[in-house]
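ok so dumb question maybe but i'm new to this and my supervisor (M.) told me to 'just get the structure for EP400 protein' and walked off. so i did the thing. is this what she meant?? sequence i used:
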Amino acid sequence: MPTVLQVAQQISQEQNQQQNGPNFSSLRSSLPAPHSRNSAFLQQVPPAGCNKKRVILVPTSVPVQQQENEILQRIKALRKEGLWFLKRLPRLQEAPRHKSHHDYLLEEMQWMATDFVQERRWK
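this is what came out, is it supposed to look like this??
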């Protein structure tokens, strides 16, 4: 059973964390130990409210790393086959479609707009 003093200290620490953000010792203790030391699983994250010179290394999740690796391997394989280009593929020409009532209506509206403009010029 924690004493009143310990509970008061814990409450004050929680209030400080809410006001100032979490302290670095609590972040370090919450990090997973063994594989997080591998630089392949670390991601650089700037701490909130600090200058940009400081950077905290936070472990990224392993499934995300695996998915990124699979995507990069697939891109590499497609490049070898000549199917992956850096620029976008050219647009294909769409098949011509028949004019609908709406198309005729838009043409007439365009004709009327030019007609009204010319009529205003005459006046």
